[in-house]
Design a protein that fits this description.
The protein has 11 helices and 19 strands. By secondary structure, the chain is of the alpha/beta class. The model has no long low-confidence stretch (mean pLDDT 94).
Length: 334
């Protein structure tokens, strides 16, 4: 049995959270998110909302969170737009001309750090900064491509290929980046997860010593946390699920897993190796006759997550084995 006093929240002084797929899905809060974060705040835990989405102002994100019943001040929000423009400010001269391929929110962040915004490659910008925009004009991609081909340094907020919404997945910043990449022989400088600048900026702002990052994507959230040696928890309310977890490469493996943010108040899951496999609580995942066998599968998400965590560790140690049959038994985990 896991010790009751070894809760995830007790091990950290700050909780850093991805937004889409973790705190909310479009206009809806993920179940239990407001209550879980309020409980963490009452314990003195610092909360920061970290988003790869450069399309919205921090104030708009804070307003959105408050409308969902989540306590949030503007300073609690750290965006990839802030991180990439801060990085640019360290690398480029103040007042430099910059072409923005994104929303007004991204342009405002570039203006705040001292850049001069221009509208066309003919204005000879020294840099192009690109971020997700849900309503971008195709001509803006052309302007960005022309500027980069003429020597402008290309900066990118993040590379998420898609975004989870309450209606399903939609194309993200990475898809828009690919449009420009198809026309240029250059690679962008990137701030958002999984690259370090965004999480480094968040830790600096919060001033924490033992943070945990919570995300729904292995390739951005969890890999990003690993890239800055930060503890992480994968939740199953957004983009990635159990099949993604068991096949995750080393650099995308979380410290622990939870179904949603309510798992913060639950004991941390720990997997232990045995002669034939792995255990987690009462769950066992082992190799029998060259195949994976699991036991401890019961009704209830927590019990099935125990099985999944044991199974994931077994699969990471034995990637040659097929976990499909075992995964199908976990009908309460997406």
């Amino acid at each position: 049995m896991r010790k009751v006093n070894n809760r995830i929240i007790d091990l950290h002084d700050a909780v850093l959270l991805d937004l889409d797929g973790v705190v909310y899905l479009g206009p809806q809060a993920v179940g239990g998110a407001p209550e879980s974060l309020d409980a963490a705040r009452r314990k003195g835990i610092q909360i920061a909302f970290v988003t790869n989405n450069a399309a919205r102002r921090p104030s708009a994100v804070a307003d959105h969170l408050r409308s969902l019943g989540i306590t949030c001040q503007e300073m609690d929000v750290v965006t990839s737009a802030q991180a990439i423009t801060a990085l640019m400010a360290r690398q480029l001269a103040k007042g430099s001309k910059v072409l923005v391929c994104g929303t007004d929110a991204l342009a405002e962040e570039a203006t705040k750090v001292g850049f001069t915004i221009v509208e066309s490659f003919t204005d000879e910008p020294v840099a192009v900064v690109q971020g997700y925009s849900p309503s971008i004009n195709w001509q803006r991609f052309d302007e960005a491509a022309h500027a980069i081909q003429r020597g402008a340094v290309w900066y990118m907020s993040n590379t998420d290929p898609n975004r989870p919404t309450n209606l399903g997945m939609v194309p993200g910043a990475g898809a828009q980046m690919a449009v420009v990449a198809a026309a240029v022989d250059a690679k962008p400088v990137i701030a958002g997860k999984p690259f370090p600048p965004l999480l480094e900026a968040t830790v600096e702002r919060v001033g924490c010593q033992a943070p945990i990052f919570i995300g729904d994507r292995l390739d951005t959230d969890i890999e990003g946390a690993n890239n800055v040696s930060m503890a992480s928890m994968l939740v199953f309310t957004g983009a990635h699920g159990k099949y993604d977890l068991v096949s995750a490469p080393v650099h995308q493996r979380p410290t622990t897993i939870g179904f949603d943010l309510m798992s913060l108040s639950q004991p941390i899951r720990r997997a232990n190796t045995t002669d034939t496999g792995w255990t987690c609580g009462a769950a066992i995942a082992r190799i029998v006759g060259g195949k994976i066998e699991v036991s401890g599968v019961e009704d209830g998400v927590d019990a099935q997550l125990d099985v999944l965590w044991a199974l994931a560790n077994l699969c990471w140690a034995h990637p040659e084995l097929d976990p499909s049959a075992a995964l199908e038994e976990l009908d309460m985990v997406p």
